[in-house]
Amino acid sequence: MPSQWEYQVGPSIGIKAADDLWVSRYILHRIVEEFGICVTFHPIRGDWNGAGAHTNYSTAAMRAEEAIERLSKKQEKHIKAYDPRGGEYNKLRLSGSHETSSITKFSWGVADRGVSIRVAESGKGFLEDRRPASNMDPYAVCNALLTTTLLDD
Question: Are strands 127-129 and 117-119 parallel, antiparallel or unpaired?
Fold first, then answer.
């Protein structure tokens, strides 16, 4: 994508991750304002992977296999929670091409960028959810991840 940049927030504990993302977005908007530049978090369609908000997540008590199993049963819930339009924005980018997963089919893999959930290395405990759209509400994403993986809800 032309002029697409990526930045990291964290590590953060609990809901502070969502707070930190909102503060970082505010700071980014203030910085670019000084230079007359516009920022958008819209996941623009194109012949590329669009803009996502890949979310890394782990807990001391969590085991990746159990969390992945729970996430696999809640694909529709997560797609709806992961963008402000209930999944409509994610239709622009989750095509199954260009290092994105399919919006309709859950998948996971080790070191695979074309899946819903990526495990960085076999045996490592954190998950990367690659489905959230760049314009996602971080509180909704945290809520969906926590209620599914910890509460099986």
Answer: antiparallel
Of 57, 84, 19, the C-alpha closest to 146 is: 57
SS3 104: coil
Q: State the residue for tokens 């909704």.
A: 140
Q: How far apart are CA 143 and CA 66, in angstroms?
A: 18
CA 65 to mean position of chain CA atoms: 19
DSSP class of residue 67 equals H
Per-residue pLDDT band for 137 (boundaries 50, 70, 90) equals very high
Listed in sequence order, the residues at least 6 apart from 27 whose beta carbon sits closer than 8 Å to its beta carbon are: none
According to the model, what pLDDT value does residue 52 have? 86
- Quote the pLDDT of residue 2: 56
Q: Is 95 helix (H, G, I), strand (E, B) or coil?
A: strand
Task: Count CB neighbours of 76 within 10 A.
Answer: 12
DSSP reduced 3-state for 24: helix
Give backbone dihedrals phi and psi of 83, rounded to 5 degrees, phi first: -150, 155
2: its two tokens: 């032309």
* pTM attached to this predicted model: 0.88
List phi, psi (to 5°) of 108: -150, 160
Is the per-residue pLDDT at 25 higher than 90?
A: yes
